[in-house]
Amino acid sequence: MKKIRNTWLAAMILASVIACQPKTAETSSEAVVEESSAAEEAESEQRPSPLVVEEGQIGGKTISVHYGSPSVKGRTIWGDLVPYNIVWRTGANEATYIDIPQDMTVEGQPLKAGKYSLFTIPKESGAWTVIFNSDWELEHGHFQYDEKKDVLRVESTPTWEENSAEMLSIKVESPGLVIRWDKMKLPIAIQ
To answer: Under DSSP, is residue 130 helix (H, G, I), strand (E, B) or coil?
Structure first.
């Protein structure tokens, strides 16, 4: 019995010594990364319109799109929540932005490699205006939009589908980018 108690006591002392040892730089940096990831996940879970990053290939290069993804939630989207004929940030919260790693064409017009905020001007009928703006780090979307910083404006015609997409999505897929929300689908040709 005395032997078991002494072994147990030795194990407790050893555990205490190990626990009191200073953490290595590697251990500390791992803890910071884990805390940072956990904080980002918690923030994303708390946002009514989660932050989404979509990636895909166009011309053999990876394109990424960063946007806040709002939900329909039974609301009237087009012409109400998102008014017609007014610049829309094409997402929620911060401005949506796209990272293009090489010069490309958008709806047949040249666009240099870079990061651009993405805006649209929805129309009740006909083609919508799609805007690429050089000011891509806008915290408040269209509230900070400056038309003078537009790099490219093109037109694209939406289609209206029977099935409704509850959450806004912007995917890198044929013909380049495809925006879906509610019953609207807006393809933007990028090559």
So the answer is: strand
Supply φ then ψ for residue 70, to 5 degrees: -75, 165
Give residues with Cβ within 8 angstroms of 160, minimum separation 6: 183, 184, 185
| Residue 124 near residue 79 (C-beta atoms within 8 A) | yes
Find the angle CA(151)-CA(155)-CA(159) to the nearest 5 degrees.
140
Asked if 68 and 79 count as a contact pair (C-beta separation under 8 A), the reply is no
Q: What pTM was computed for the model?
A: 0.74
Q: What is the mean pLDDT of residues 72-89?
A: 96
Any idea where the domains of the chain sit in the sequence? Answer: 2-44, 49-189
At 172 the pLDDT is 96
Which pLDDT does position 45 carry in this prediction? 58
Tokens 């400056």 sit at which residue? Answer: 146
The SS3 of residue 158 is: coil
**Residue 51 backbone phi and psi in degrees, to 5:** -75, 130
Average pLDDT over the chain reads 83
Q: How far apart are CA 97 and CA 118, in angstroms?
A: 5
- Report whether pLDDT(40) > 90: no
